[in-house]
Amino acid sequence: MTELLLKDDSPQIAIHPAIVFSSEPMLPAYFPAELREASSLIRLKAGEHLFSPDAPPLACYRVLKGRVALLRPAADGASMDVQHAGEGEWLVEPSPFDRTVTCSAIAERPAVVRAVPIRAFRATLRRDAEFANAWSRETAQRAKRLQLTVERLSLIRACDRILHYLATEGAGGGEVYLAFPLREWARRLGMTGETLSRVLADMEAEGNVVRIGRRGFRLP
Predict the structure, then answer these.
(1) Which of 44, 87, 150, 190 is deepest in the core (most CB within 10 A)?
(2) Residue 61: inside a domain, yes or no?
(3) Are residues 159 and 99 part of one domain?
(4) Into how many domains does the chain fold?
(5) What are the tens digits of pLDDT across the range 121-150?
(6) Which residue, 123, 113, 134, 127, is CA-closest to 44?
(7) Does the residue 165 lie in any domain?
(8) Would you say the C-alpha torsion 104, 105, 107, 108 has a positive or negative sign?
């Protein structure tokens, strides 16, 4: 089954007209040199589409700067949020195994994206066992983080979501230094910025969270 999924008979198509330069070392260290050289950087303006539904997948995409949203068309004509990928995150679609794109990818703000041509990706997975194993490990780690996110968002109380995040994402048993603004943390926790600020203040006053600078937090 995997071999069938990896077999690539799709036509070669240019990735994106906004490719600006290539061969930048912005991929995980286990990526082989030939795959790095085949990849390109794409610069997107806020609101610009990277790809649209019902098109053949051209590449796998990793966000280097900014943020890109994946939106799936809903039956009522609206759009459903699938992912908001920030710096260092792969777009979950398309994967190396997809035959058709089902989502739109839109830059929420100016973004730079690394595009790895999907044909080269599939070929490398077929012939390079070390790369395939490393990609599998990274995919499993992403699946674990997704499971923790679903678990976290199932919690009703905002304070419980914050404690869960610190306990599962923090180093040393609960210490986190955010690499993004608090409003982005609020979005990831499924609450408004106002709610996050209020609940954090209450938790600090009660001694349930210790604040470290502007974006650092730890469990007591």
Answers:
(1) 44
(2) yes
(3) no
(4) 2
(5) 999 999 999 999 999 999 999 889 889 888
(6) 113
(7) yes
(8) positive
Q: What is the 3-state composition of the chain as percent helix, strand, coil, each rounded to the nearest 5?
A: 35, 25, 35
Do 160 and 202 lie in one domain? The reply is: yes
- Please check whether residues 30 and 115 belong to one and the same domain: yes
Q: Where are the alpha helices (DSSP H) in 43-181?
A: 118-127, 129-153, 158-169
Q: Report the C-alpha gap between 129 and 8 in whole angstroms.
A: 18
- Percentage of the chain beyond pLDDT 90 is 56
Phi, psi of 196 (to 5 degrees): -60, -45
Q: Same domain, yes or no, for 102 and 168?
A: no
The CATH number given to whatever domain includes residue 51 is 2.60.120.10
Q: How far apart are CA 41 and CA 5, in angstroms?
A: 26
- Look up the domain containing 107 and give its range: 2-127
Contacts of 127 (CB under 8 A, 6+ apart): none
DSSP symbols for 37-73: HH-EEEEE-TT-EEE-TTS---EEEEEEEEEEEEEEE
Nearest alpha-carbon partner for 193 in 201, 204, 185 = 185
In a domain, 146, yes or no: no
Domain CATH code at residue 165:
1.10.10.10
The per-residue pLDDT for range 160-190, each reduced to its tens digit, is 999 999 998 888 778 889 888 898 899 889 8
- 99 lies in some domain: yes
Cis peptide bond upstream of 94, omega within 30: yes
Mean pLDDT across the stretch 98-119? 93
3-state SS class at 33:
helix
